[in-house]
Amino acid sequence: EPEVTQTPSHQVTQMGQEVILRCVPISNHLYFYWYRQILGQKVEFLVSFYNNEISEKSEIFDDQFSVERPDGSNFTLKIRSTKLEDSAMYFCASSVWAGETGTQYFGPGTRLLVL
Amino acid sequence: TQLLEQSPQFLSIQEGENLTVYCNSSSVFSSLQWYRQEPGEGPVLLVTVVTGGEVKKLKRLTFQFGDARKDSSLHITAAQPGDTGLYLCAGSNFGNEKLTFGTGTRLTIIP
Q: Count of CB contacts below 8 A, A vs B?
């Protein structure tokens, strides 16, 4: 069964460093998402991406964050200058459609720890 | 801001018992998804409900979407230790692409 994959599974970085989290969505899906989950808290939406541009973003997704689909398979989340509070699990998701008919399938996540 | 509240937050029951967990909101959602999440892993989709009053069954799990599409429930019959996990509901809305996640119910089934 097709699945969303993410790399790395764990990332430790120093505050102020840039990190890039990678995702390979399910191949026939058109919509891509990033969510994060701070330890012990709810899963929170960061951004959605369709047709090579951001279609929706949350207040969390500020200028320090960017997303890119550099080729036909990868979808990346870049954090330019990490802060301690960026420590969280980051989940990539994808769907065929968006909105009420767009069931989202999640990857296993990248655990980011900022020291 | 749309919120989804799940109850109970924690539930621990004996193997073989039945249980129901709830997902409630004051807002209408166009569809609702239930996920199960294991520690350190991503949410795994269980079911999507889109029609008010809809009932879906997945083996021993029964999902219902409220008539007004503001709430949902998950009923497990004859719970087994393999049902242990964090159950999340997540709603999507007309014209929006994001999922709004609930607070989660952590279920423990005692053998």
A: 70
